[in-house]
Design goal:
Blueprint: H1 2-15, H2 24-27, E1 33-34, H3 41-45, H4 56-69, E2 73-80, E3 86-92, H5 95-99, H6 101-110, E4 127-133, H7 141-155, E5 156-157, H8 159-167, E6 168-173, H9 178-190, H10 231-243, E7 247-254, E8 260-262, H11 276-296, E9 324-331, E10 337-340, E11 343-346, H12 347-367, H13 369-389, E12 394-397, H14 403-415, E13 421-423, E14 426-429, E15 432-435, E16 440-443, H15 449-456, H16 475-478, E17 483-486, E18 494-497, E19 507-509, E20 516-519, H17 526-535, E21 541-543, E22 547-551, E23 554-558, E24 563-566, H18 574-588, E25 591-595, E26 602-603, E27 611-613, E28 619-623, H19 629-642, E29 647-651, H20 652-655, E30 665-668, H21 678-686, E31 690-694, H22 697-702, E32 710-711, H23 726-731, E33 738-744, E34 758-763, E35 768-769, E36 780-789, H24 794-800, E37 804-811, E38 814-819, H25 833-841
Parallel strand pairs: 4-6, 4-7, 7-9, 19-25, 28-29, 28-30, 30-31, 31-38
Antiparallel strand pairs: 1-5, 2-3, 3-6, 8-9, 10-11, 12-16, 12-17, 13-16, 13-18, 14-15, 20-24, 20-25, 21-24, 21-27, 22-23, 22-26, 32-35, 33-34, 33-36, 36-37, 37-38
Helix pairs in contact: 4-7, 7-12, 11-12, 17-18
């Protein structure tokens, strides 16, 4: 009889679409009384929770009104998104704790300091939980549940809630992704019918490209906790480390035909750096989720599908910080009510599950308080112990030719509270020279030992061959920075502790020139300076051969890619040119050199035809349905935020009627382009355009546009296989994302600005290009054993041997540049930036004879 009642309850939860299901009593525990002085969500936002999708402005307004009415809540704005929406954090605890909040915070931070933590008494120390919602904006049940949860914490009365607040500091982030949440809420609300339409084919459930999952620049913020390249992540991490919570929850949604998932995930896919105690605690907390969901009759599952491997996810990053990260995944209604295999799934039902597991998290943290606090203390203590036992005592990193890129690497480390030291003098490690001022030391003997390890290590051995996300993220390889392990540290090389990374100084060496200015292409922001010069109407040229010339610093060698700006016969006066060069050099950390003559001491003179004239990039990129939004977003963000270079984004549905003659570069990232007029693009390239194809777009180009020979991927051969292993065996063939080494031609215009013949690429696709028959047209090819870090199947490893990473094909007066990897992966692949910018500036510099 009990099973029958439970089944009826489950069906009711899925099928009820009545107004009753949206009343507060549908969600809230009925055994608790609520303070009538605390405003309900409906009294502020104007509708019942779940009746409409909450827009971010209403969410903010309610949270601020709630804070005004409750002495349990302190609210702060932690920052703003790209679209200037506020990011909020509510600190919720008892009034008594609020009165001593700073003291509690400082004591809690001491728990994470091995030098102080041993003597701390945790008997009365509150546990800290961070509860965050809807980092994917089109997974909105979390943020809508945050309305209810905040109300509950402010209004609930009785000994149970008072005890919980006395023992807990709750950091409530109602929207991890305000821009995406608002985008999706608008879509779902604008398609809602008075009489709800539940047909999955309805437009309500199929939001238009790029969807609300992403932030403004179409990035998945749930992959940015470790790289921390976006405003939202940087603002959040600052507060995370100000508190260092014991538990962090991350509320998501998944496919509509699924039920509800909570961690632990697949045990064999837990990162080996994560302490075993973390997974033990995750399992204990999970029992509270199960009990609370059992009470309302909701189906759920654990230990399947999801993992704890990539530390860039919100539910995994805490695991290496002495905390426990918890992922929740709710089957999504995608609108207000949708038919599923379980019946009609309503939006209120999805909200109720997220709210219920918010309560169970609070209950678990309260009951496991001492165990969680002890785990945090022990986690940082054992980290230092492991560091002492490790043969690696530190890492040295830095590029003397690219100080800005080094700065951004250090900036990333600082966001995670990793200690950095200056290098004293000069040192050679692994045949690499490092020198003071451009190289830095990161000792491993510090509380963030595990995080340092995951940032620097190369991983090639795995317990499992399936990954929910990428299998490698070795950061110095991503930044293309020289680095090495240090087996010992002493005061002869360890300089002062870095208080803050400083952006490099730029200058014009030699002052005002009446002849010309030179600047090298090595520095990260050299393309930004060049674009500013060209965009101002000045003529600039690029050196296609090295040369030596006398400067104010003596005779200097200048390499391929050096930029030359004549001081005369320009649209600006010599004073205006100097002012522009000086401002840009300082802003971008560039050393420019004023020269007095065009006569060099060796190599090409400044008037040589080997200096190619440049034109400002005029770039268009195809976007829209079928195009990989995150890949396109990476390019948009890079050009817009870092280089101030505008990109016109043309929707694929409008392309055939668009005038593309105004552009000199066209970009196509991974995607499907079946409706795009291939002949139109072909004619445009033949007339002098540069077409840049990335990853799967290469397959589109190889079919009738340009002669690109592709290898067909194979699967690992299996002599015997059971049906139960089908999913795992097929999944193991996927190129989920690993790091590969390629040999590059430093004399090729696409590789100007690089100084080593080895370059690391991130590849997460099964596009394999044969090298072109013309030996000059494959400027980058993978080595015989290219895997540097990450997982790859045997069949895919064989496919990767010696194939092309980049091919260039001449087509009439234009060029087709095919790049099989993601040069701008998740905005932290700084090592590919120069190559990408070279496709924009130097496409026409490539000699046609080298690409035929």
């Amino acid at each position: 009889m009990r099973k029958k009642i439970t089944f009826i309850l489950i069906v009711f939860c899925f099928t009820s679409i009545t107004a009753y299901s949206q009343e507060l009593k549908y969600y809230l525990p009925d055994s608790i009384t609520y303070n009538p002085a605390i405003p309900t969500p409906e009294s502020v936002i104007g509708h019942k929770v779940g009746q409409w999708h909450i827009t971010h402005d209403k969410l903010v307004y309610y949270m601020r009104e709630l804070a005004k009415s409750s002495d349990r809540i302190k609210i702060e704005q932690t920052g703003k998104t790209y679209e200037d929406r506020p990011q909020l954090l509510l600190t919720i605890t008892s009034p008594k704790n609020h009165a001593n909040l700073e003291q509690i915070r400082q004591q809690h931070l001491d728990l994470c300091n091995p030098a102080k933590s041993a003597s701390l008494n945790i008997d009365n120390m509150p546990v800290v939980i961070w509860q965050g919602y809807s980092i994917h904006g089109n997974e909105p049940s979390g943020s809508n549940a945050a309305l209810l949860y905040a109300y509950y914490l402010a209004a609930a009365q009785g000994r149970q809630i008072e005890e919980a607040l006395e023992n807990t500091i709750i950091l409530l982030d109602p929207s991890f992704n305000p821009d995406g949440l608002n985008r999706f809420a608008h879509w779902a609300n604008m398609h809602k019918s008075k009489h709800l339409v539940t047909d999955p084919q309805s437009r309500e459930f199929s939001e238009v490209w790029p969807g609300g999952r992403f932030n403004h620049y179409w990035f998945d913020l749930n992959r940015d906790w470790l790289p921390a390249q976006h405003l939202e992540s940087q603002n959040r991490l600052k507060k995370f480390h100000e508190w260092k919570p014991n538990v962090l929850t991350d509320h998501h949604e998944m496919g509509s035909n699924s039920t509800f998932f909570f961690q632990p995930g697949v045990p064999s896919r837990t990162n080996p750096l994560t302490p075993a105690k973390n997974q033990e605690l995750t399992g204990k907390i999970g029992k509270f989720h199960a009990a609370f969901l059992d009470r309302i009759g909701s189906l759920y599952y654990t230990k399947e599908g999801f993992d704890d491997f990539y530390y860039g996810k919100g539910s995994t990053y805490p695991d290496i910080q002495g905390a426990v990260g918890i992922l929740f995944e709710q089957g999504s209604s995608r609108g207000h009510a949708q038919e599923t295999i379980h019946g009609v799934l309503t939006f209120p039902f999805t909200i109720r599950n997220q709210f219920t597991t918010s309560l169970s998290t609070l209950e678990a943290a309260k009951n496991l308080r001492k165990e969680l606090l002890n785990y945090q203390r022990e986690s940082f203590q054992t980290a230092v112990q492991q560091a002492n036992a490790s043969p690696i005592k530190g890492y040295i990193v830095g590029d003397r030719n690219d100080r800005a890129k080094t700065y951004h690497f250090l900036e990333m480390l600082e966001r995670h509270q990793i200690e950095i030291y200056e290098l004293k003098g000069k040192i050679t490690v692994d045949n690499q020279e490092f020198e003071s001022g451009s190289a830095f030391i990161i000792p491993t003997n510090q509380p963030q030992y595990r995080l340092i390890t995951t940032i620097f290590q190369k991983e090639l051995k795995f317990k499992d061959s399936l990954f929910y996300d990428v299998s490698a993220w070795t950061m110095p390889l991503a930044f293309n920075l020289p680095y090495a392990e240090l087996k010992s540290l002493n005061n002869t090389i360890l300089g002062n502790k870095l208080s803050q990374a400083i952006f490099p100084m730029g200058e014009v060496v030699g002052g005002r020139s009446e002849y010309a200015y030179l600047f090298e292409w090595d520095e990260y922001y050299a393309p930004k300076m060049l674009y500013a010069v060209l965009n101002s109407g000045l003529i600039a040229k690029v050196a296609t051969d090295p040369f030596e010339i006398v400067t104010a610093n003596g005779n200097m060698k200048f390499d391929y890619g050096t930029i030359m700006i004549p001081a005369k016969n320009q649209a600006k006066s010599e004073d205006e040119i100097y002012q522009l060069i000086e401002n840009q050099a300082k802003t971008n950390g560039i050393k420019a050199y004023a020269v007095k003559t065009g006569l060099v001491s060796d190599g090409i003179d400044l008037g040589s035809n080997s200096f190619s004239i440049l034109e400002a990039p005029k770039v268009a990129m195809l976007v829209g349905a079928g195009v990989a939004a995150s890949d396109a977003g990476e390019i948009w963000h890079l050009a817009d935020q870092r280089f101030g270079l505008p990109i016109t984004m043309i929707d694929v549905n409008n392309f055939n009627g668009a005038n593309i003659d105004k552009y000199n570069t066209l970009i196509m990232v991974s995607g499907s382009y079946g409706s795009v007029n291939k002949d139109k693009i072909k004619n445009w390239v033949q007339n002098g355009g540069s077409l840049v194809l990335f990853e799967t777009a290469i397959e589109w180009g190889a079919n009738g546009l340009v002669n690109i020979n592709l290898k067909k991927s194979k699967a690992d051969s299996l002599k015997v296989a059971s049906y139960a292993d089908l999913e795992n065996n097929l999944g193991a063939q996927e190129m989920g994302g690993s790091i590969f080494q390629a040999k590059v031609d430093l004399t090729h215009p696409l590789l100007y600005g690089y100084n080593t013949s080895n370059l690391s690429f991130f590849k997460a696709n099964s596009v394999y290009m044969q090298r072109n028959s013309n030996p000059y047209s494959t400027p980058a090819q993978y080595t015989a054993n290219p895997l540097q870090s990450g997982y790859i199947s045997k069949a895919n490893a064989e496919m990767m041997r010696n194939v092309a990473a980049i091919n260039v094909n001449a087509l009439g007066r234009g060029r087709v540049i095919s790049i099989d990897n993601d040069l701008n992966f998740r905005a932290f692949w700084f090592g590919g930036t120069k190559l990408f910018m070279n496709t924009l500036f130097f496409g026409k510099v490539i000699d046609a004879r080298s690409a035929r």
